[in-house]
Amino acid sequence: MYFAVVKLTFEAMGKTPADRKAVRSLAEKLRSRFKVCASVCEADEEQGTTAIAVATLGSTEERLSQSLDAISEFCETHGIGRVESEQTLLDHIDAISDFNAGEESE
What we know:
Blueprint lengths: L1 E9 L6 H18 L2 E4 L1 H5 L3 E9 L2 H18 L4 E10 L1 H12 L1
Antiparallel strand pairs: 1-3, 1-4, 2-3
């Protein structure tokens, strides 16, 4: 089992309440269509950028990568504009237990 955490940053857009609503609506659409955890990055909103964080699980690395590509494409075609940058952490789920074991030994 693999996990991924992705931060999708979009091109600059306005700071109106309608724009914020559109970003939140996109996060909700991602949650319902792709069965992922998706949330607007509030700290980025305060700095004037628009970003959504997505977390998901997949049975294989290839399947997870395909799902992330589909999410990025969906954001560009149904969302609020072009994805400017994409930061991805993709790893095997066992890496989490290895990380926790390292913290306990300290």
